[in-house]
Amino acid sequence: MALPGSLRPGRALLRASMPPARGLCSRVRWLRAAGGGRGRLPADRGPPVASQPPAFGFLLDVDGVLVRGSQALPAARRAFQRLADGCGRLRVPVVFLTNAGNCLRSAKARELSQALGLQVSPEQVVLSHSPLQLFSRFHRRCVLVAGQGPVQENAQHLGFKHVVTVEALRKAYPLLDMVDLSRRPKELPRPTPGFPTIEGVILFGEPVRWETNLQLITDVLLSNGNPGAELQDVPYPHLPILACNMDLLWMAEAKMPRFGHGTFLLCLESIYKKVTGRELKYEALIGKPSPVTYRYAQYLIQQQAEKQGWKTPIRRLYAVGDNPMSDIYGANLYNSYLKSAQQSQAQAGLKRSPQAASAQAEVSLELRNDCNNSVESCESILVCTGVYQQNRDVPKEPEAVFHGHRDFCFDPSLVEPSYIVQDVDDAVLLAFKKENWS
């Protein structure tokens, strides 16, 4: 099924697809009726026994939900004691939906397996850049990749054939990197012959040397992919940019949140506009809260159910996260897309919303003809073990501080979770009770 509308929703499209606002008090009424206060559940901790295949699945964030830095949260291990049978096999389909992107899926799967004491396969992991394998029309272009970790290997695994790293570009044109005095060339270097023209930019995640990356990426955009050439006219529109992970902040072992890739994007956007007087535009924004990321995760959930031989269609998704501006916003936005898709089924084919941003390329999800469209809802569950602090309210007013990306408008209904619980174990128990799965 192709995702309705454009891959990166424009502001008008977002407003048109928003669900009606609901207060937090009404969203947690079920918890209180069940005998617990806000974020608390009854003390029943015994693992339920499923009598039938599940009609639901979990989309679990990692940092702040399952781990803090490299340390697993105790609630995460308790949650997977519920989710797995005595042999360690999952009884419910689970996808680990993280905005991390500085590693391979296989490496993240090994890391999660060790942290949770459960065998996690790479097919259960969605990193911020995983959906880029669907963008086949860019795979044969020469692309500049920025981030940290195995960025070149990641790009190649995703299908990109011609990859240039920022470090390779810096070595080819050493005069471009002038901030660090210790790295400036002592003698005037010879021109680098045969260096390829760059045809696109992929931003995997926050880099280590921000000043070098900001300078060289800007050089590539201003020179239309030929940073060694003398600047004539600034091209606009600029080369296509695909950016992964829009998180302004994320939670590690520190007591306060840390800068994420969204902060780096903010810097790049500000510099480009200050230099050119024009807006930096993205071909696509991937990772939470982008709907294409949730659609891809849904596909993997359905694949898991099929491999297990479960005949019951997956009807509901429970997205558990700690960040209202990415996890909750993304789950609520995708839920609105699911509702819109259901309303569109009566029509002949899916039509692109006329309110979608015209500059945004529409990308169909070539996911498989047998991927059924059974999912009806995606409910958001906010935990208090990460970015979200229980003593702080979710912003209610439009003028409140918005930590989301500039291309996603702020609306209170999109950052209000369906439920607030203490931790991921409570989130799993909540879903089991809602599904009457015991």
TrEMBL record:
The keyword Signal applies. InterPro entries: CDP-alcohol_PTase-I, HAD-like_sf, HAD-SF_hydro_IIA, HAD-SF_hydro_IIA_CECR5, HAD_sf. GO terms for molecular function: hydrolase activity. It comes from the Eukaryota. GO terms for biological process: glycerophospholipid biosynthetic process. Gene3D superfamilies: HAD superfamily/HAD-like. One of its GO terms (cellular component) is mitochondrion. Keywords: Hydrolase, Signal. Belongs to the HAD-like hydrolase superfamily. This is Haloacid dehalogenase-like hydrolase domain-containing 5. It comes from Elachura formosa. The gene is Hdhd5_0.
